[in-house]
Amino acid sequence: MNDLVIMQDRQAVTTSLKVAEVFDKNHRDVMESIRNLTAENSAVEKMFEKSSYINLQKHEQPMYYMNRDGFSLLAMGFTGKKAMGFKLKYIAAFNKMEDLIKNGRRKDNYPIPATYGEALQLAADLQKKVEHDKPKVDYYDSQMRNPGLMTTTVIANDYDMSAREMHQKLHDYGVIYRQGKNWVLYSKYKGQGYAQEEPFPYRNSNNHQGMKPILKWTQKGKKLIYDLFKQHGILPSVEQMELLPG
Q1: Of all residues in the chain, what percent carry a pLDDT higher than 70?
Q2: What's the predicted TM-score (pTM) here?
Q3: Which comes out higher in pLDDT, residue 12 or 131?
Q4: How confident is residue 1, by pLDDT bands cut at 50, 70 and 90?
Q5: Cβ-contact 93, 4 below 8 angstroms
Q6: pLDDT confidence of 136, banded at 50, 70, 90?
Q7: Which residue among 135, 197, 210, 244 is least crowded, i.e. fewest CB within 10 A of its CB?
Q8: Which letter, b or e, does each residue of 59-86 get, where b requires 16 or more Cβ atoms within 10 Å of its Cβ?
Q9: Number of domains in the chain
Q10: pLDDT digits over 14-61, tens only?
Q11: Are strands 209-217 and 195-203 parallel, antiparallel or unpaired?
């Protein structure tokens, strides 16, 4: 039930996917209800924004973002004791997010990031705080199971490049080097919390299963990549779009 309400373009919103999940509805039915609402009154269209997501089968599917008013109209048709409880939780989540946006700071006193670079810096700062507050062994153990660790492929997607291209650039910048078939950090960057090696299961040509280490990046590591690439004039796609004339 986390992240009932998120921030998008400095506005508190939720999604048709999240509404369907929380209220135990079929997403297609929720989408149909939204289409009916927007068809009845043109003013309602401003409360919903059509978007898309990638499903588990890697196919692009439609979805909607909606603000508080849009959610309120949609949720009017949801009845029952459980539905009322979920509505109250949503109202509380909208209130919390709108207060956060209005005041411009999170409860932990970190400012809300306004740019991609600031978002990466915030993530790196929060990671540093976690490392400081927890015993090192416990932190390492939790991070090894942490789905927040990112492969190079995931980060490379932000720059519209392949993992191979990003690995090569990081090698050129003196961050990583080849050790056999694996990429590893140069000693300068080891033990600094930038990345970790995570065991990855595989099967060889004889169908024997084995394990090999794969380099995964922390938020601090992602910020390192961002800073290095920016020094060389390479920006993530989202910042390239911001530089285009409006």
Answers
A1: 76
A2: 0.42
A3: 12
A4: very low
A5: yes
A6: very low
A7: 244
A8: eeeebbbbbbebbebbbeebeeeebeeb
A9: 2
A10: 999 999 999 999 999 999 999 999 988 888 999 999 998 888 888 889
A11: antiparallel
45 assigned to some structural domain: yes
Task: Report H helices in 78-188.
Answer: 81-103, 116-133, 136-144, 152-157, 163-172
Q: What is the span of the domain harbouring residue 155?
A: 116-243
Shared domain check, 179 and 74: no
Other C-beta atoms closer than 10 Å to the C-beta of 172 total 11
- Spatial neighbors of 22 by CB under 8 A, at least 6 apart, are 1, 4, 86, 89, 90
Q: Is residue 1 part of a domain?
A: no
Q: What counts of helices (H) and strands (E) characterise the chain?
A: 10, 8
HSE-up (13 A, CA, CB side) for residue 125: 12
Query: Crossing angle for the helix pair 136-144 and 116-133, nearest 10 degrees?
Result: 130
Q: Are strands 60-66 and 176-179 parallel, antiparallel or unpaired?
A: unpaired
Give dist(CA 91, CA 71) in Å, integer: 10
